[in-house]
Amino acid sequence: MDLLRQAAGVLIVFGLLAAFVWRRGRRGVLTLHFSRGARRDRRLMESVDRIALSPAHALHLVRLGDRSLLVAVHSGGCSLLDARPWAELESTAAKGIAS
């Protein structure tokens, strides 16, 4: 009898969890947290791009307000490689695409 009670309790908990996740997803709350475009105008910092060089090394392009930062991530930590105005990076990218 105890085994039946425990199984019923576990099923009830999983059912409540599934109902909660379904309701939150239906209201759009979960999609707001994972959507990059929905909050782009209000963000101060944004990860624009990432290139993995190895499992422990990567380059990250980060937009911080009106600045672009190129950050190297390695086993010893992080290093700032370059910082430029975001407008300068956009104009360079536009010239590269137009060519």
Produce the secondary structure layout.
Elements: H1 2-26, H2 29-34, E1 45-54, E2 57-64, E3 67-74, E4 77-85, H3 86-98
Antiparallel strand pairs: 1-2, 2-3, 3-4
Distance between the termini: 76 Å
CA radius of gyration: 23 Å
Contiguous low-pLDDT stretches (5 residues minimum) are none
Number of strands: 4
User: What percentage of residues falls in helices of 4 or more residues?
Assistant: 40-55%
The arrangement of helices and strands along the chain is HHEEEEH
What proportion strand?
A: 35-45%
Number of domains: 2
Write up this protein:
This protein has a four-stranded antiparallel β-sheet. 44% of the residues lie in helices and 35% in strands. The mean pLDDT is 81. The protein folds into two domains: 35 residues; 59 residues. β1 and β2 form a beta hairpin. With 99 residues, the chain is α+β, with helices and mostly antiparallel strands. The chain starts with a helix and ends with a helix. The longest helix has 25 residues.
Based on the model shown, name its key terms:
alpha+beta, elongated, 99 residues, 35% strand, 4 strands
Summary, kept brief:
The chain has 99 residues and is α+β, with helices and mostly antiparallel strands.
